[in-house]
Amino acid sequence: MTFAVPSPADLSAHALHTFEKMLQTTPTFKIREGQHAMAECVADTLSRADLGECAAPDKAIAVIQAGTGVGKSAAYLSTAVSMALERKTRVVISTATVALQEQLMSKDLPALAAAMDKPFVFALAKGRGRYVCKVKLDRLAGTGSGEEDMFEEDFPVAALSTASQQAIEERRIQLYEHMANVLASGAWNGDRDMLAQAPDGSDWAGVAAERHTCTARHCPKFKECSYYNARTRLAEANVIVANHDLVLATLGLKTLPDLDNCLVVFDEGHHLPAVALDQFSSAMDLSNMRWLDKLPKAMQDVAGKLHLHLGEDVNTVCSQLRTVLTQTQRLVMDMVHDSTDGKDGTLRFPNGVLPETLTDPMTQISAQATGLSRTLEALGVDVKAIAKDDPSQGVLCAQLYAKLGAIAPRLNSVATTAQLLLEHGEQPLAKWLKAETEGGFLNLTAHASPMVPGDLLRQFLWSQVRGAIITSASLTSCGSFDYFLQEAGLSGNKNVTTLEVSSPFNYATQGTLTVVHTRAEPKQAEAYTAEMVQLLMADLKQIEHGALALFTSRVQMRAATQALSGELLDAVLVQGTLSRTRLLASHSARVEAGLPSILFGLQSFGEGLDLPGLLCETVFICKLPFAPPSEPVDEARAEWLRKMGRDPFSELVIPATAIKLLQWTGRAIRTEEDQAHVICYDKRLQLQSYGKRMLNGLPPYAVKTRRADGSVQSA
């Protein structure tokens, strides 16, 4: 008997029916026209994508901007999950923040599962580093077998006193013993996030399950492994919630389903370009070389205990590498300090051209580090082979492999960074040196990074993806998708469709946007800040409930904080004085008690904060959130564009600022009942042509103008 394969139209109709049924059976959901339009787009897009083995597969990608309040997760979850079950495939939902992951796992997916006729399993995907390695933990907690002398702790600061090192060792031993006990009792599953108290990063690093330290199926603890047990749960799941970093970092590693054989949703998709740049950049540490001193002994110990032949004089090569790294360290320190008058700072190489003084050292570093890396990798392969052939040596091999793996990432970063610094292409890389003092010690690093995220995503991600949805509340800039499509590597892609779904909120009646015209020009930083702070202080006194003031720099926020007096001192909560969680809890408590409460924050408070109702009745934007190219990658890209006769301000700065402004104003109205005001002290929003473009890309607030004399009129 043969079964007809559902047509795209049938698949789309089935998915849309599931969405509509979910709305009808879930009392808390409201029927919204925009949400229905989004669900239709998701269903149509994912139905048209060919999955699995195909000679010439059809691809389909939808880029959907869904305004605040649309209910985008309900729109894409119901349709994508229903579609996947019907097509007997899976869905990967990727987010940028832990908060959205928690919302999907604890609220949205359970609600969908309760509403759907057909059952499905969902699971959260995390990187290996979030899970404990039982082999490492047993050894460090003193419950495992042997080779204690092989695992010396690599303290980050070599100058720690003996007493300090002993105190750290004692504290860690107690921590590891506690972790081993709760793991053995079954009260803990090995997931770092499930511990009652999260361990310090340096403490956790000693027991984390990392790819370079894992013999996988050849490990005697494989069946008890927290990470691989989690992988098993993922393999059984119909819906996998991940994050952008994990999706890009594990391309081709089989950690997640093959992207050409599943459906993918990128929520908070506006973060994808930045994540791509971060994933494909590289850096080498030129300060701490203790790992390099340990490398030859570690490799010789492993080879000796397992009677293996290294095939290279690692002592000589390590000594040569250390010598050239030490010479480079001095060069880098002098070069940075010469460019900064002896201060910490960053030195970027114009046009991605490495100075001649560094070319020869980096050539040597590249050759020596690459050779050692290959030898280390070959030794690791031999260790795994012994573990496979002789299970009685499984524990020893797992420990020895972990010893090698602890050093491998540092060696690889040196080799990769040196290669990138030497690379010359039609499109240059951003290359820079950095010196910064931390805890009284100078850290020196060398960096290399691609400049254009779209090229990376096009080559490594979209070449694999068949059916995908990219969604966010802020994908358009100045009312157009062009900037995001360019940054995401989707510009000109014939398989891409775009949809803008407006918020159900009535911005014209629910809120106002007042643009304050200061006497000082925003470019006159000192005079503008002084005038803006004076105006802000007067406006803050009018706040009765909750408000949010967003600043473009710490200097600006500090000036406003120092100007607080009287009752405002008690009413203002400043980012950085408490953890974000405690700050928001204090804010909520004050508002609930009927007291005024104003949050002072920077860029991170301009996105992702959900403060409905009285928690945020006014958003103060102290200056347009321009981000002039100051980071090395941004500087390098602007330089490259200028060299080609293009305008980086128009192509990069304005679109990026418009997206931030859309996010910042989006903190004001969060529900259909909210009444809120946005006050922007930057008159360029109305007076400059680019400001008017940004204004046209914002929700349709009732816009007002406040003159320097205090008079207010409708714009």
Helices, strands, pairings?
Elements: H1 8-25, H2 33-47, E1 60-66, H3 72-87, E2 91-95, H4 98-115, E3 122-124, H5 134-140, H6 162-185, H7 201-205, H8 226-236, E4 239-243, H9 244-249, E5 263-266, H10 272-279, E6 282-285, H11 290-305, H12 314-339, E7 345-348, H13 356-389, H14 394-422, E8 430-438, E9 441-449, H15 453-460, E10 467-472, H16 482-487, E11 496-501, H17 507-510, E12 511-516, H18 525-540, E13 546-550, H19 554-562, H20 567-571, E14 572-574, H21 580-592, E15 597-601, E16 618-621, H22 632-643, H23 648-665, E17 676-680, H24 684-687, H25 689-696, E18 702-706, E19 712-714
Helix pairs in contact: 1-2, 1-3, 2-3, 3-4, 5-6, 10-15, 11-12, 11-14, 12-13, 13-14, 23-25
Concise overview:
The chain is 47% helix and 14% strand. It is α/β, with parallel strands linked by helices and 715 residues long.
In the predicted model, the low-confidence regions spanning at least 5 consecutive residues are: 144-159
Molecular shape: globular
Percent of residues in beta strands: 5-15%
Largest sheet: 8 strands, mixed
Strand order of the largest sheet: 14-15-13-16-17-12-18-19
CATH fold category name of the largest domain: Rossmann fold
**Number of distinct beta strands:** 19
Determine the N-to-C terminus distance: 70 Å
Q: Can you count the helices?
A: 25
- Compute the CA-based radius of gyration: 28 Å
CATH class of the largest domain: Alpha Beta
Assembly state:
single chain
The CATH homologous superfamily of the largest domain is named P-loop containing nucleotide triphosphate hydrolases
- The CATH architecture term of the largest domain is 3-Layer(aba) Sandwich
Q: Decide which structural class fits the backbone.
A: alpha/beta
> How many structural domains are formed by the residues?
4
**What is the average per-residue confidence, as pLDDT, rounded to a whole number?**
91
Helix amount, in percent? 40-55%
